[in-house]
Design brief:
With 458 residues, the chain is mostly helical. 75% of the residues lie in helices and 0% in strands.
């Protein structure tokens, strides 16, 4: 277990003294990621319709998550060897490149390629930021910076969906991608000076490149992608292909995660598995909610994006509250409270689609889910770091980020198969997806009591 940092932080915060520039730079990167995520989720129904890409709708979201695993493993290994600074620079460059490819795409397939490049970058970025937090911030400030990361979603949540909808309706959806490229340039002007505060090394050059893990990550990405498109095969083969891909994906994920993660062992393994399950449930539903609101309730993309706006604000607000609360709210309690919020939000979306209730029921309910994630995600991140030390921070951070990607990737792939392959029509097809992820979210309660090791106190 990681030795506690004894740095005296009395009177200090994440914006004070030596932490200020690094905090601003890191938050700028999180801001961009949040803006791109919320904007693309808002306009993807429009893109799918214009590029005749309904068959690749789920792949456009599951694919980036799948290849993000490769970026996570590469960045985790690189950070353990040489520190997090250069992995962060490289991932931001790839992120911008992916946006350019997506913004100039002439087909849904080309757009998916751009999304894959951005997904690879996103995976690497998340790991680099986790390692920066572990190595630069003392223990007492880590809950605050993780809360700050989540709060960095608030402004994109306020303006991202609305801006994406307006841009899509006026000058076209392509400028949603290309406009973010300009923001990347501005962010890098802030990030490069900030990262000078982070040691260029700080890793252990004796840590070897783990080509085996890199290979497993590639296999995992390919199998999740295969699972995403398996519904395009003839019916008997699509079912067989989906089952085989799912089994291979789980086998490939095993060496990429801390030992015992797939079995939910007490402590770190359960933290990792729970993160995968709850992320799969939440994002599996979030991707289809704007789709439901635009196609079945005939809302504009900007209005449908209100669901993302409310959830983003609630996520950020809850993160700040739990970060300031510290240990006042115990780990188990925070985790269970967060899971409950996500489950309630999914139920709201389910009953809205099932009984054709007013759209505001789902939109308002999704804000509760955002608050749940804001309570849960930072606490799981802090727990992960508490089970880590300087020799495995990169590996464990990558494992948590892989869980964030694999859970939603598999959930979206299975949801896409259900959505495209069944004979359900209209809102019923969406109800099937929401019911699936509701069952997934309830599995998280089973693990909630195991995230704290026996020697730790709640």
């Amino acid at each position: 277990m990681r030795q506690a940092d004894s740095t005296d932080t009395r009177g200090q915060g994440i914006f004070s003294g030596r932490y200020r520039l690094v905090t601003i730079g890191a938050l700028a990167i999180v801001f961009l990621s949040a803006f791109e995520n919320l904007a693309v989720t808002t306009i993807m129904p429009v893109i799918s319709r214009e590029l005749d890409g309904a068959a690749l709708y789920a792949v456009a979201f599951a694919g980036p998550l799948a290849v993000g695993v490769v970026g996570m493993v590469l960045a985790g290994n690189w950070c353990d060897r040489h520190g997090p600074r250069w992995p962060l620079y490289g991932s931001v460059f790839l992120f911008a490149l992916g946006l350019v490819v997506a913004g100039t795409a002439s087909s849904m397939g080309a757009l998916v390629v751009g999304r894959l490049v951005s997904g690879l970058a996103g995976g690497a970025t998340s790991v680099a930021l986790y390692v920066i937090v572990a190595r630069f911030y003392p223990d007492a400030l880590q809950p605050r910076i993780f809360g700050g990361f989540a709060a960095a979603w608030v402004i994109p949540a306020l303006i991202g969906p609305a801006i994406a909808g307006i841009v899509s309706d006026t000058v076209g959806w392509r400028w949603v991608f290309l406009g973010v490229v300009a923001l990347v340039v501005i962010a890098m002007v802030m990030v490069v000076p900030a990262m000078r505060e982070v040691m260029a090394s700080g890793g252990d050059s004796d840590v070897s490149w783990s080509f085996g893990r890199i290979g497993w990550s590639i296999l995992l990405a390919l199998t999740v992608l295969g699972l995403s498109v398996s519904d395009q095969l003839p019916r008997p083969f699509s079912i067989i292909g989906a089952v085989v891909a799912l089994i291979v994906a789980l086998v490939a994920a095993r060496p990429l995660l801390p030992a015992g993660s797939l079995l939910g062992g007490r402590g770190l393994p359960s933290v990792i598995l729970l993160r995968a399950i709850i992320a799969g449930a939440y994002f599996g539903a979030e991707v289809y909610l704007p789709y439901l609101l635009t196609t079945q309730f005939h809302l504009t993309p900007a209005l449908a994006g209100l669901s993302l706006t409310g959830a983003g604000i609630a996520w950020g607000g809850a993160s700040v509250v739990q970060g300031r609360a510290g240990n006042t709210l115990g780990a188990r309690s925070a985790v269970r409270l967060g899971i409950a919020g996500v489950a309630i939000a999914i139920v709201a979306s389910l009953v809205t689609s099932l009984f054709v209730l007013p759209a505001w029921v789902a939109i308002g309910g999704w804000a509760i889910g955002g608050a749940g994630m804001g309570t849960l995600v930072p606490r799981l991140s802090v727990l992960m770091l508490s089970y880590s030390n300087t020799t495995n921070q990169g590996f464990n951070s990558a494992g948590l980020s892989i869980a964030d990607a694999v859970g939603p990737g598999i959930a979206l792939a299975v949801a896409g198969i259900l959505f495209e392959s069944t004979n359900l029509g209209g809102t019923a097809a969406f109800s099937g997806v929401f019911l699936l992820v509701l069952v997934v979210s309830l599995l998280a309660f089973v693990l909630s009591g195991r995230v704290v090791a026996r020697e730790k106190h709640d």
